[in-house]
Amino acid sequence: SVSDKAIFDDNLDFHRTNLTKHPSEMEMTDTGGHVEQWAVLADKGYQGIQHEVRAVLPTKKPSGGFLTFDQQCTNDRIATHRVVVENYFGRLKTLWAVCGDAYRWNRKNYDVLFQTCVAITNVHIRFNPLHAEDGDATIQYVNRLNAIGLKKIKDKKKAQQKYREKRKTRLTLLLASESAISGNACDSGN
């Protein structure tokens, strides 16, 4: 499986192009570096992208160290804003199962399928805005997937047990008939 960061890195040209502000957007008040670009709001797994594109990333705790109070407060503010991103993906996965599982169909159709799911999800959000409850929907979705997985495991064990019982019955009958045939052969030989 490929990490999200690796996929991001493989598509840097796409991100640079789509993060570039249009001339009318340049008039908006913006502070910080790279004001000609919109920023990517990412989690700790995307460390390093700030060297390629404008990014808002939480600070990673140093190995064996601690974050300062200000760094922790900044991370909390970033996490608050990232909730919307997580809620979006939760909604996408809830509406379209194909987006929430490993893609197993024809790779050639993936882009069009995914873009269609995203477009229809955007329309859905226009009529049903994202809320904090969407996090609950994501948890419910994950729990449902776990329940499906556990049921599959349970059903497989049941099927294996049933197979073993039937096999044992067949072998018992076979051995009984073999014994009867052997016994008859011995009786007729006397």
TrEMBL record:
Cofactor: a divalent metal cation
Gene Ontology molecular-function annotations: metal ion binding
Pfam families: DDE_Tnp_4
Signal peptide bounds: none
UniProt key word Metal-binding: yes
Domain DDE Tnp4: 2-122
Record's keyword terms, sorted: Metal-binding
Name of the protein in its database record: DDE Tnp4 domain-containing protein
Annotated source species: Aphanomyces astaci (Crayfish plague agent)
